[in-house]
Amino acid sequence: QVQLLESGGGLVQAGGSLRLSCAASGPIDSRWTMAWLRQAPGKEHDFVAAIRGSDGLAYYADSVKGRFTISRDSAKMTLYLQMNNLNPEDTAAYYCAARELGQNQYTVWGQGTQVTVSS
């Protein structure tokens, strides 16, 4: 089965940067769409960014455009999220998720990594 393992979270001051990684294992390939979502305490999961498997197109939530960059190393089957100019509103647990080509929902999730931005 496909498994996702996130890393790279931590505590950073406002204006700082972090890079998250998500290592995928199992029967997954570059045709899968992979994404980052986040969940702040007491809130629902919010979409952050994704790379579409069908054509490699990256797309972002408006709140992170221009600050976050999603990328994927297909050879290593690793997804990244470079986060710059972080602010306290970015504080959340960040989850890596994946779905197969043709599926509408993310069916595989990682365990999450905490990002805390202090003011």
Can you tell me about this structure?
With 119 residues, the protein is an all-beta fold. Helix content is 0%, strand content 52%. It has strands at residues 3-7, 10-13, 18-25, 33-39, 45-51, 58-60, 68-73, 78-83, 92-99, 108-109, 113-118. The strands form 2 sheets. Strands 2, 4, 5, 6, 9, 10 and 11 form a 7-stranded mixed sheet that branches. The protein has a 4-stranded antiparallel sheet with strand order 1-3-8-7, with no helix packed on it. The model has no long low-confidence stretch (mean pLDDT 95).
Layout of SSEs?
Layout: E1 3-7, E2 10-13, E3 18-25, E4 33-39, E5 45-51, E6 58-60, E7 68-73, E8 78-83, E9 92-99, E10 108-109, E11 113-118
Parallel strand pairs: 2-11
Antiparallel strand pairs: 1-3, 3-8, 4-5, 4-9, 5-6, 7-8, 9-10, 9-11
Strand content: over 45%
Number of strands: 11
Radius of gyration: 13 Å
The run of helices and strands is: EEEEEEEEEEE
Shape: globular
CA distance, first residue to last residue: 40 Å
Q: What ranges have pLDDT less than 50 throughout 5 or more consecutive residues? A: none
Q: Approximately how much helix is present in the residues?
A: under 10%
Tell me the structural class.
mainly beta
Mean pLDDT level = 95
Can you describe this structure in just a few lines?
By secondary structure, the protein is an all-beta fold. It contains no helices and 11 strands.
Keywords, please?
119 residues, mainly beta, seven-stranded mixed β-sheet, four-stranded antiparallel β-sheet, 0% helix, globular
